Structure to design on (170 residues):
């Protein structure tokens, strides 16, 4: 029967482990046995009389709190902040003014827009007066030509028009 070298080596290692573990003992176990045989030591204590009193249902503490949710606040228009109406950690209500922005640029733009509106109104008034003048001119021309309201006329029937056309054809 052939025995492999590896098998012999494995058996030797297993036997040597068994011998070493059986011969050695735990130092901690030996120390525990020695301590169990010793006498207990005396410990000095102080006692006090128990007092019955009411304890408050609150407590004061100093520290920092972190919220469960965080909200980002952004303005609808950009600008320079001129006033902050809250402190960090304050409670704020919906709709309350948190910061005030510099409104000088917005006021200038508003004044410019109002000036443009006024200019447009004056342009409309001028156009309306021109329309009214043109209507008056039409009424005068109709009166000179002897036309009544709603009647039609042919420009070719007037003698001045015929004379001018005759000169043009020459």
């Amino acid at each position: 029967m052939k025995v492999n070298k590896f098998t012999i080596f494995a058996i030797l290692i297993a036997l040597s482990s068994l011998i070493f573990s059986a011969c050695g003992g735990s130092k901690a176990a030996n120390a525990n046995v020695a301590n169990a045989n010793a006498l207990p030591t005396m410990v000095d204590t102080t006692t006090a009389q128990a007092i019955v009193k009411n304890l408050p249902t609150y407590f004061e503490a100093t520290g920092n709190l972190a919220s469960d949710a965080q909200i980002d606040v952004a303005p609808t228009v950009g600008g320079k902040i001129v006033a902050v109406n809250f402190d960090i950690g304050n409670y704020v209500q919906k709709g309350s003014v948190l910061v005030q922005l510099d409104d000088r640029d917005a006021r200038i733009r508003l004044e410019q827009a109002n000036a443009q509106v006024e200019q447009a109104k004056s342009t409309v008034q001028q156009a309306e007066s021109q329309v009214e003048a043109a209507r008056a001119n039409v009424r005068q021309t109709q009166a000179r030509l002897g036309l009544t309201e709603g009647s039609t006329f042919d420009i070719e029937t007037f003698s001045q028009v015929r004379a001018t056309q005759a000169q043009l054809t020459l």
In short: The beta strands are 81-84, 99-101. The radius of gyration is 56 Å. The CA atoms of residues 76 and 119 lie 29 Å apart. The chain has four helices and two strands.
